[in-house]
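Hi all, long-time lurker, first post. I run a small reading group and we've been trying to get comfortable going from sequence to structure in the token notation. Rather than ask abstract questions, I figured I'd post a concrete chain and ask someone more experienced to write out its structure so we can walk through it together at our next meeting. Sequence below, copied exactly:
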Amino acid sequence: MNPKRLFPFALALLATNAFAAPVRIAASAGPQVEILDLVRQIGAQKGTLELEVVPVRDADRAHAELLAGRLDASSVDDGITLADRIAHGDRLVAATQTVTLPLGLYSRKLRDIGALRRGATVALPRAPHQLARALILLQNYGLIELRDEAGTRAKLADVVRNRRELRFLALPPSRLAAALPRADLVALDFDAAAKLGLAPARDAIGIEDGRSPYANVLSVRAADGKAAWLKDFVAIYRSNEVQRFILTRFEDSVRRPW
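-- Answer (accepted) --
Happy to help. Here is the structure in token form:
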């Protein structure tokens, strides 16, 4: 083919790419931002995806911006939280799972879950979403049993078996750190643990599996559920390079649900 005939086409393609707006993704500060920044770099190197990562601390604000069209996607919620948003009328979908930021069980008195004594005190987050998450984790370790129908909305009243007669303290997030020296076991989410310098894989004596229902998700507007950029995004996010980064950078304290 005559190169002169290709030249106008090449110019048009370059112009299209130069003026295309980047995909804007909001992400919670911390591991989410770090991982997405690597995805951004790989996408730029390959020339297949142009991302702009927007760090946020307010998940509700991020979703308002997404619904208003000022963002293309949001990586701030776990799957259960997003399902609640959808149930309340937000026209969103989960485009893909990202990573699990695991809730952990921490203790300054015990080295192993099996050493938890009868009548021990367990401090749990009071917020309903996190309380249910902590109770499910305790059940997964065989410490309690919950009503079958409790699911991801489990409450203390749903505990039907407590063989070790554990004493539960449901505390606001601001008081959980102070409970560490006193309680036998404390349930802390990833962010709360990080503020104390604790890492789930290194410091927790109980930790969620990567394939938890509380794995984080990438949210997009329902109308954009099949947006062209998503295929490239998922391919990069789940690439070997990103997998290695997650494992080495966070030393198994950030887990993959895929």
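A couple of things your group might point at:
The first strand starts at residue 23 and ends at 28.
Residues 3-19 form the longest helix (17 residues).
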